[in-house]
Amino acid sequence: MAKIDELSELLIEELSDFKLQINKLETVSKEIQAVVIKPDISALKSFMESTLQLQNEVVKNQNVKLVTISNKLTNSNRYPKWFLALLCVSLMSVFVVTGYSIYQLQSISEMKLLEYEKGRKEISTHFYEFLESDEPSKKAYLNWKSEQSLP
Question: What burial letters (b/e) apply to 29-61, b meaning 16+ CB within 10 Å?
Fold first, then answer.
């Protein structure tokens, strides 16, 4: 029986220790539940605010650059100035050459008439000079002319 008494005493002692531990756990549990854990997010908030502010500045800069590029595109020409100048000079050259060609074509008939008259005078002069220099040819010509005018 002594062993049973020892065992029961040991069991009672263990139970009382267990009860004490449970009471301590309950107290600690109540303290833990009573403690409000509030994390310190001020560093995170300041980081997020600075990042947001930096992002807003970047967006503003991009908008300014976009407006500048848009203005440049609306004010720009589709063709470079040197190309337009070259085109104008080429067109003017074509018009001048065409006008001169038309003038030359119109003056060709006048030139033909002048050259014909000049050639006729030269041949007549040459023919009369020949007749003056060659007496038998002159007589033959005058004879032929008189026969032509008789009929």
Answer: eeeeeeeeeeeeeeeeeeeeeeeeeeeeeeeee
d(CA 54, CA 62): 12
pLDDT in tens, 48-97: 999 999 999 999 999 999 999 988 888 777 778 888 899 999 999 999 99
What contacts 84, CB < 8 A, 6 or more positions away?
77
Distance between terminal CA atoms of the chain?
195
Backbone φ and ψ of 41, nearest 5°:
-105, 15
Tokens of 87: 């085109």
104 conformational bin, left if phi > 0, alpha if psi -120 to 50, beta if neither:
alpha
Q: For residues 121 and 128, is the Cβ–Cβ distance under 8 A?
A: no
Is the model's pLDDT at 149 over the cut of 60? Answer: yes
Per-residue DSSP letter, 1? -
Query: Is residue 130 a contact partner of residue 137, using CB atoms and an 8 Å limit?
Result: yes
Residue spans of alpha helices (H) in 1-151: 2-34, 42-75, 81-133, 135-149
CA–CA dist 2, 44 (Å, integer): 67
Q: Give residue 74's Cα distance to chain centre.
A: 12
What is the distance between the alpha carbons of residues 28 and 31, in angstroms, rounded to a whole number? 5
